[in-house]
Amino acid sequence: MQNILVTGGTGFIGSHTCAELLKSGYNVVIMDNLSNSKKAVCDRIEKITGKSVKFYEADICDYDATCQIFSENKIDAVIHFAGLKAVGESVQKPIEYYSNNITGTLVLLKVMREYNCKKIVFSSSATVYGMNNKAPYTEDMPTSATNPYGYTKVIIEQILRDICVSDETFGAVALRYFNPIGADKSGLIGENPNGIPNNLVPYIAQVAQGKLKELRVFGDDYDTPDGTGVRDYIHVSDLAAGHVCALKYSENNDGFEAVNLGTGNGSSVLEVVSAYEKACGKEIPKKITQRRAGDIDTSFANAEKAKKLFGWEAKLTLDDMCLDSWNFTKLNPNGIE
Ligand code: NAD
Ligand code: UFG
């Protein structure tokens, strides 16, 4: 049975992917420094799957700790989620973002080379499409960024491309996620942000709970059907399944591939609010405010490449995403503690 190292495996997307890996018959070793997640997530993954995970509280920037994991486990492939991800914070703390995300990835890649581990699936982001491309985004479009977080994704993709050129037996898949939301059907794992959420659905969830007064809709004068921003929301469980497909693909293919994971459809802020209201049976108070700096009007994927290479496509609807988000929120009113 193959052993997969999942960095950032107790985080939002990582935890759902660990559950999916276990269900698909892989052994899972999680490495997480718990900077944005809780160890209790491991128990919940075990409860969902009836299988055990091995957990290391360790930092990907720590070379010795990373070597220890590879020496104690024969790691066949890595799924690399660990990273800092808040766009606004990255502008305030560029050194922390470059050092955690880029130095951490370089340490991980160096240790992988030392232990002859040649397969990696990396969490990239639709943010690499920048401000100058027009949706639907295809993987061959030029990449760029507007903030340090986005640059870390652009740079890490380039690092992976360069490694694949230097070693033709190395395989790397960079998955460009669109907007992951929702939670596992069980309600045991989900998104657990610290403080006031920046992202739309976690914010709406806290308004529905009564923790926040109202949603601020950032602009209704975009060039979109109802004037509010359009994004490609994807259920985190569909996204998790996409990682297992990418891993299977990389078992038989070397070289670098960047692949979108999205549904191929966009929804506006107001459409998400309506779907959430239906899911929770309450009205979500909202007011229109000015645009948020750095936001674009429309982002959605061309999802054909994932279908062609992996045979994967998203199945769950926006209603499923909102129902599962609300189910998780109700069952865990203070997140996972
Ligand atoms: P998350 O914060 O829930 O998970 C990331 C995990 O990595 C956390 O558990 C954190 O404790 C851990 N971590 C951070 N730095 C670490 C380090 N140096 N060493 C070890 N562990 C470390 O975030 P998520 O939403 O699950 O995102 C996972 C990945 O997907 C990130 O790389 C993120 O940039 C990327 N991504 C997320 C989104 C999104 O909207 N959620 C969109 C596109 C890309
Ligand atoms: N929005 C609001 N009010 C809020 C929060 C968001 O109106 O309180 C709007 C935004 O203006 C945007 C939409 O809801 O139109 C979605 O915003 P999110 O912050 O949820 O998501 P973004 O598309 O801005 O960004 C997300 C991730 C980034 C990633 C990007 C592209 O947070 O890390 O998708 O993948 F880079």
Structure characterization notes:
By secondary structure, the protein is an alpha/beta fold. It has a domain at 3-181 and 233-264 and 300-314: NAD(P)-binding Rossmann-like Domain (Rossmann fold). The protein is 41% helix and 17% strand. The protein has eleven helices and 13 strands. The chain has helices at residues 12-23, 40-49, 63-72, 87-92, 94-114, 148-166, 200-209, 236-252, 269-280, 304-310, 318-331, and strands at 3-7, 27-32, 54-57, 77-80, 119-125, 171-177, 179-181, 215-218, 230-231, 233-235, 255-261, 267-268, 286-289. The chain has a seven-stranded parallel beta sheet with strand order 3-2-1-4-5-6-11, with helices on both faces. Helix 7 (200-209) packs parallel to helix 9 and helix 7 packs across helix 11. It binds nicotinamide-adenine-dinucleotide and uridine-5'-diphosphate-4-deoxy-4-fluoro-alpha-D-galactose (UFG).
Name the descriptors.
alpha/beta; two-stranded parallel ribbon; 337 residues; globular; Rossmann fold; single chain; binds nicotinamide-adenine-dinucleotide; 41% helix; binds uridine-5'-diphosphate-4-deoxy-4-fluoro-alpha-D-galactose; seven-stranded parallel β-sheet
